């Protein structure tokens, strides 16, 4: 026992003893760890759990139709330029008020105002930017289901206002009616495709897995820009022609079906 104590009291001997003890511990642990690692590597890969089942078919069907818009639209601007911004605002407000009264006097005309703007314009003098006056602008939009009446009103308003553009749009009632009709057609075509796919692949029928019925497409308004300078007043101004034309509307149905034996 005294001899053993003397051996450990030496720094070199103590360090050697610690190294020997660590080597002995590692030697015991490694043989147990290696088989476990090998066993983990030998495990088979996990089976795929998200594979799509057989007999699933993706389908897309659509229905479309050419439809004439049922509302005429015309947009105008009351514009004045000058140095006295207060006077310009008064003039534009007067022009707009008179135009609104004239539009409301026509049965079935919808009137909307907006976009009242006052903006400065500048000029360069001797390399310096100087304010050169003001531009005051206000917007007026009129709509009606009577294309001819709106065309006559547009010609009347064009005597004092600038015509920004004319166009057509579909009323909410017309859009709802066409969406219902085209949706029925698209669904019928989708079902026909599903039945044909089941028959062609040797199945007895199908069930719906998922289906998406799209919104009505193609019903956006169709503006036609038409900038005209202000003309002198004329009591015999001809009506501005506004043609409805045709717009292509469509509805699409897409999804997947499960074919059944």
UniProtKB/TrEMBL annotation:
Gene Ontology BP annotations: DNA damage response
Transmembrane segments: none
One Pfam family hit: SIMPL
Protein name (database record): 26 kDa periplasmic immunogenic protein
Organism, scientific name: mine drainage metagenome
